[in-house]
Amino acid sequence: MNTFFRLLHFVKPYRWLVVGSLFFGALFSALSALSIAIVQPIFQLLFDNISLPANSPDVNLLARIKDNFYASITHLIGVNDSKSLALVKLGGLIISIFIVKNISKYLCNILTTLLNEHLICSIRERLFTKMLHFSMDFFTAHKGGHLVSIITNDVAAVQGSVTAATLTLAREPLQIALFLLMLLSLSPFLTLVAFATSICALLLIRIATKALRRYAERMQSVTANFTSVLQEALGGIRIIKAFSMEERVITLFTTQTRGYVQAASKYQRVYDIVPATSEIFAIIALSVVLYVGGQQVFSGEMRSHELITFLFALFSIMSPITNVISLPAQVQRGLVAAESVLGILDREPTVEDGTETASKFEREIRIEHIYFAYPNGRIVLNDISFSVQKGRKIALVGGSGSGKSTMCDLLIRLYDPSTGQIFLDGIDVRQFTFASYRRFFGVVSQESLLFNDTIANNIRFGSNGEVTDSQVREAARIANASEFIEKLSDGYNTYIGDRGVLLSGGQKQRLAIARALVGNPDILVFDEATSALDSESERYVQRAIDNVLENRTAIIIAHRLSTIVNADEILVFHEGRIIERGSHTELLALKGAYTRLHDIQFGSTD
Predict the structure, then answer these.
(1) Which domains does the chain have, with CATH numbers?
(2) Are strands 393-398 and 553-557 parallel, antiparallel or unpaired?
């Protein structure tokens, strides 16, 4: 239940919706009880001579309240005038009660729905915001499909069960209390008989709840799995088709969805047992009360209209009681989903935001004795030290897995080093806020992720501030992209499809360069920006990079050495260490690792 109460913290901003829902729910409950209580005067008027009840000092408080209530009804319908007129007045009272009752129910449902939808919206927004502020290690440790499933499926499950319970809690407990008072006022003995007979239903609920939780956990797990398969399949559809793997992926997806069907079927079978069995025990209780109460009527211990009213009230209390005692079973799936949601909200990013604002980059970024290892213990960087002077171009080269890209990730604080420090103009970068520090960087990666939006908006994405159309065009011009953009039918307003699918690889990279440039960053980072391109596309992109690098500080991760021969300093990485450093000419003169890389790409010079 702690999970359920934690979810209620999201209610605070919408407390007026809660108040309104509770008010109209309470009004509905009171009128529901009143609509049953009015049964007794009907039967008295039709079958007996209705009269004012006699006040007796021996009856209990509830009995006196009941007698006073019926005395008020008697005065209201005016039975002393005419029975026909009394029937008309009684009919009008019943119609009025049911009109107000259903208006209250309608308003309660509307307000509760608004409350639930606002709650779900709030949870989704907070969850999405929390995820986006996590460090990169969180995303490397979790499948993207699982995270999507939490935001969509798990939150929907919370809405479908846990928050749906708020409607039950808004009106059923008061309804139960009013009906229970009515039953006790009519016959405490029959009330005890009724509830003693149906106590077995509570034991059933306790047993079923454990099974429901187990199946709910399976459902949420399988849902996350098939969502992950779906996302990966749609994202990698080109590869799937290229290798004719459609049937294999379909089999994987159907295996997961059928697993969901199996778990959902078991969940529903157990879930449906609860209300069905509860209703059976309720009917048994009603039948026992009918027999025992009938015997009391025959013996004169109870009047017939009181027994009929008691049976109506008992029948009416069954539904709200069933709804309340079924709540533990009803909310199990939502609670399991809520635990996943709250587990994300309870996490803290491993890379913490700083408190100071980085105002400008004047001298250098200095890296001192950096060590870095992933959570699995694999060491990626081992005692790395170098500096990036303002206006200079530093290149990082080496084999795959040597630590080049990880070093750039540390520079822009996607991760923090295990040990060691990075300084911006002598200040530890961990003291700066992410926003102020990262605005110094413009990043172009090997795979340029573009959004299903216009070309202009994709370029604007590179700056948090206002970007004018002229700035967009200037960034595109420098990135050697304006020529192909202006040939498109809609120019800069052209939609480029999901992940930029309507553009070629070279065109996407040039847009990525324009995006990195539009915010006028102090430092440009190119992470193997041309390695995935054909020769012609590489030539266009390399020309764009050359345009961009004029008079700028740059960190270039290169696979093709031809792109970094003019770098001021080249750092050669091998198994997480810097094994050589110097200019292109200096490194060739060493005849070491860099020379071997050069000879592999261009042929031996011997």
Answers:
(1) 2-119+126-346 (1.20.1560.10), 450-521 (3.40.50.300)
(2) parallel
